[in-house]
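User: I've been going back and forth on whether these two constructs are worth ordering. Before I decide, could you fold them both?

Assistant: Sure. I'll take them in the order you sent them. The first construct and its structure tokens:
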Amino acid sequence: MNIELDTIYLNNNAIDYVADDGLIKAVEIAIALGKPLLISGEPGTGKTKLADYVAMQLATQTAGKEYAFLQEPFVFNTKSTSVSTDLFYFYDAVSHFRSQHADTTTEQFIELKPMGLAIAQTHGLNSKDLEGVRKIENLSAACLDAQPRSSVVLIDEIDKAPREFPNDLLNEMETYRFDIKEINQSVSRCNSDCRILVIMTSNSEKNLPNAFLRRCVFYHIGFPDKEKLLQIAKKRLMIANGEYDALLGKAIDEFNIIRSRAMNKKPSTSEFLDWINLLKHYNLLNNNSFSPDNKDPLYEATRSTLIKNYEDQLIVNNKAAM
């Protein structure tokens, strides 16, 4: 048996992100107040992609203006071991200790992290105000624009971090200033005209401290209804006309049935998109072959993108057979 070597692409262009009016208003409020925006919602509902979309939109809207936004966000992926300084910089003490070169400096073992880069970017790489940190390893044209620029910072899955992590960020997040104690240097935002929009995502796995929440703008991305799922599918599959609307609607109905029956792991929006992409790629999304009662082995195989638990598989299949 030959195994088919195939590649199936999904359109991940940030400009095709589907954001509802409430979400856009929350972004605007966070910008106006100069506060972080905390986004919650089920995994796979597009929380992380929001930062890419917002950065691209703001870059387009401010292009050619002073302190224009960068087109891509600075991204911090939170870990269970993250501490507050990790958001600003990292000092590799082990490598520094092991270094045998007499001419090495502490700065060579320091790396600015997303929020540190965003704050430095408000000065621009060529600014004299960065002379004290000029020798830091990644302070270069590869990371920063020469001119002062605004930016978006994504702190992804902040609820993964220890509880003290968000509380330890309160002062630095309000003042946009941080200290690098290893070289006795401080870096602060250049001026208020350069904006830093912080977007944080949470899967609501654990409650965040109230003192932290008081300083945030909050928005919950609910699971999309049928109309929005149709809109998302057409955007991501790059379908410009109504040719597939009826069939996509039928597939969405089938997806919602599976989602309602799954007890352990309900399929997400991202899994829905993978499934729809497979149906379209294998020409299963047509009147002759697609239906909820379809027993085509290929069609059944595509549902592996939706059902990720053996017990759910039994429940969904048994109920589908009833």
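The second construct, handled the same way:
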Amino acid sequence: MNTFIRFTERLSIFLGIIAAILLVIAVVVVCHMVFVRFVLDHSTSWQTEFVSYALIASTFIGSPYVLLTRGHVFVELVPMMMGEKGRFNLALLAYSASALFCIILTYLSFEFWLEAWTENWNSDTVWEPKLWKAYISMPIGFAAISLQYIADILCLITGRDLPFGLENE
């Protein structure tokens, strides 16, 4: 179990780094697009689409890191009003439902990616990139966040982590 939790934590950190790199690349491409359009007065063909795909990919791929660091927004009013056992049960229910939802989305997004791969889908823009390259971030991100939720459930059950990260009064 310790190995699984450490592996999942490292995977989430690695994917967080990849997501940050994608954001930096997107910023550089936007700067390139602005320079080409307004300084050189040339048209651009691929930059807008690339930036859109990079931002979407960074969102999916970076989500396990956000969950790991508790960087997401949640309303802590209800858990704070509950007792220790109620908070534990609510956290277990929330983590389990979220894990199940992400596992289902992993399966569905993998099917979607596989269809784009086997049917050789291209974007209908001038650039025409292969869409499987853009869609691969969905099953990767959902699979990784599913693993992170499972690791969080294990940490919660074994007492390594507090429900919702909130101290008991």
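Notes on the second construct follow. Helices lie at 2-39, 47-68, 77-81, 84-118, 131-135, 137-158. The first helix runs from residue 2 to 39.
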